[in-house]
Amino acid sequence: MLSRICCKNTDINHLYFTSSTVFLFQFECFLAPLTDDGADFGHWLDRNGNPENYFNGNTPGVHTCSCGTFGNCTDQTQTCNCDAKDPVVEKDDGNINY
User: Fold this and answer.
1) Strand 2-4 vs strand 22-29: parallel, antiparallel, or unpaired?
2) Per-residue pLDDT tens for 63-77?
3) What's the pTM value of the predicted model, to 2 decimals?
4) Is 79 exposed, middle or buried (0-12, 13-18, 19+ CB in 10 A)?
5) Residue 92 burial (10 A CB sphere; 0-12, 13-18, 19+)
6) In the predicted model, what is the mean pLDDT of the chain?
7) pLDDT of residue 13
8) Do 74 and 29 contact (CB within 8 A), yes or no?
9) Would the pLDDT of 9 be above 50?
10) pLDDT band at 54 (very low <50, low <70, confident <90, very high)
């Protein structure tokens, strides 16, 4: 099952995943990192209510977006474009396999 949603005005706490869910993640940002200096500002909750900060694949505990998986982030030292905190609009995406 593929669930496509946009997170604008969406309460992530009310999303429930089946055993074979793929969740399409998309996030546009301007100076808004998903994680910074070890602090998670963006996360989602797994079916047990635990926060997860991976946004591509199935890598619990490893913060990454699709650009980090494929090595094409705008800042090669980051695993998500938004984490670069550049003063331009950035976009991150990924498919969370959960």
Assistant:
1) parallel
2) 999 999 999 999 999
3) 0.76
4) buried
5) buried
6) 82
7) 46
8) no
9) no
10) very high
C-alpha to C-alpha distances, 13 to 9, 62, 88, nearest whole angstrom = 12, 21, 29
Query: Token digits for 4?
Result: 């496509």
Report whether 15 contacts 5 (CB < 8 A): yes
Band (pLDDT 50/70/90 cuts) for residue 14 is very low
Q: Measured between alpha carbons, how far is 92 from 98 in angstroms, rounded to an integer?
A: 18
Question: How would you write the chain as a 3-class SS string?
Answer: CEEECCCCCCCHHHCCCCCCCEEEEEEEECCCCCEECCEECCCEECCCCCEECCCCECCCCCCCCHHHHHCCCCCCCCCCHHHHCCCCCEEEEEEEEC
List of residues 6+ apart from 8 with CB closer than 8 A:
none
